[in-house]
Amino acid sequence: MMDAITRPAESEPNLAAIAADAAGERAIGRPTVYVYEAPVRICHWVNAFAIVVLMITGYLIGTPLPTVEGEASASFVMGYIRFAHFAAGQVLAVFFLARILWAFVGNHHSRQIFYIPVHRKQFWKEVLHEIRWYAFLEREPKMYVGHNPLAQTAMFTGFTLFVAFMIVTGFALYSEGEGIDSWQYKLFGWVFSIWPNSQDVHTYHHLGMWALVMFVTVHVYAAIREDIMSRQSIISSMISGERQFRE
Amino acid sequence: MGATTETFYSVIRRQGITRRSFHKFCSLTATSLGLGPVAASRIANALETKPRTPVIWMHGLECTCCSESFIRSAHPLVKDVVLSMISLDYDDTIMAAAGHQAEEILEETRAKYKGQYILAVEGNPPLNEGGMFCIDGGKPFVEKLKVMAEDAMAIIAWGACASWGCVQAAKPNPTQATPIDKVITNKPIIKVPGCPPIAEVMTGVVTYITTFGKLPELDRQGRPKMFYSQRIHDKCYRRPHFDAGQFVEEWDDEAARKGYCLYKMGCKGPTTYNACSTVRWNGGVSFPIQSGHGCIGCSEDGFWDKGSFYDRLTKIKQFGIEHNADEVGMVAAGTVGVAVAAHAAVTAVKRLATTRDDAKDSAKQDH
């Protein structure tokens, strides 16, 4: 499924390219493959938006803004910031869950970020090739319809695992305010069996946020870079769902 | 002391406490335990008819602050009544008997009230060097603890020491001081953490156990839910300032005088489960935050090892230099940012060079 395709010629002829020909342009055969289905794309952008909101509000909860003057009853700054954080957290949780469910019904690309085929030798060989490509040791990149093996590894460890960790610790911390009778505590209270002092959970929740900052940095950079260097669409693919291969 | 079987009520009356005061205490206890109006008469009935539960109070590695708190239980009634109502058969710190006479009581209680007495433990046993860092009556404390725990009905772990380990278990813990639940694993243990626990919480727990003959409902960590199910932060009277975004920034600033939230001064209220902000201290006079100082989280696990009392976040020491999660994260994220920028620059240069080579190649082919 993540086999490299050197020449995606077997794909169906691109209607858009033919239409462009009718307008008098020189026809260029640009094969396209439908990769990201609508639910995958929707989850991607909703989660991206939620994560940005969570990072900003989360940082402001840990390091609050300067003191607001006036009566306490006149402002609700921390209240609104915390509300935004909790709301975005629940949105992320719901869409992350929806994304997991879609992995069961979607195409095989929708399953890529949830596992690493650790047992496949060929996979690791291709990871090595990708590392060499990023280390400027390979002249030509391999083309993949979905994620390349290195990207798949990064998506699974850097995104899926960390977001799951953040959702679990986040709900555990949220349950502290909701009380020990809340469903949040019943579902996620076990976190405090691992770390009895919730101060530790706070620490790990902060570290998790920074790990995601690193992931987002690399993710955005790699998407832009591959879009240019590998002669295949990456960014627009997450909007249209189609991956276009350029000559 | 524990030789005769008598009810709490007879002891109370013998001590000159009026029936009216006795009922006042019952109502007060029922209220503080949140049990509702009927419970007061049930408590009174239990105290009048049930034989007193013998309590053995032992001291391991500790500072006696739990005892100090306990004997100051604010309402004189509570103090007087509790000290007589639980048949406190043994407490080497405050008992009159000493030496062999005192140690005999342990054996006597163990034989006479097998499986019926409460073992209250203040402090914890150090396990290093065979327990030699805490010798009690010529023997390591850990041995005494194990022997007495064997026949106890339940164990009360008083304070942060017995519950979590506290200061003597702080890193590097040279004596290997160990909380009770890690040493005694076959008995119900109720943790009453705090350094020290609030007096009314202690007497409340004892009253519950002696009244109902069972442990109160415990949370995931073995603490009584009625006192430890909410954070200081949840019931803090400064909470409106937190929600409004009004914080003390310096100890002597205007915000401190106005009594704003101490979150930025490292208050551990948001991560500390205790009853300070509701029950308060010294008979409901005050508690640390009300006195202008943040909570230090003394009833939480390992609170000595979580960095300064004045920092919100724990210092992470695994990186050689002490930094908190945000500082570590910011450096790491910054490094990744720089690496990405550098990678982008190299990519651009390489690409430029390759394009030029390609151009040269194609130029050669043309000729």
Question: Quick summary of this structure?
Answer:
The complex is a heterodimer of chains A (about 250) and B (about 375). Chain A is mostly helical.
Description:
- The complex is a heterodimer of chains A (247) and B (367).
- Chain A is an all-alpha fold and 247 residues long.
- Chain A has one domain: Fumarate Reductase Cytochrome B subunit.
- Chain A is built from nine helices and two strands, in the order αβααααααααβ.
- A two-stranded antiparallel sheet of chain A has the order 1-2.
- The two termini of chain A are 22 Å apart.
- The mean pLDDT of chain B is 86.
- Chain B has a five-stranded parallel beta sheet, with helices on both faces. Chain B has a two-stranded antiparallel sheet with strand order 4-5. Chain B has a two-stranded antiparallel sheet with strand order 8-9.
- Helix content of chain B is 43%, strand content 9%.
- In chain B, helix 1 crosses helix 5.
- Chain B folds into three domains: 220 residues, NADH:ubiquinone oxidoreductase-like, 20kDa subunit (Rossmann fold, 3-Layer(aba) Sandwich), CATH 3.40.50; 80 residues, Cytochrome-c3 hydrogenase, C-terminal domain (Cytochrome-c3 Hydrogenase, Chain A, domain 2, Irregular), CATH 4.10.480.10; 38 residues.
- At the A-B interface, helix 3 and helix 8 of A face helix 12 and helix 15 of B.
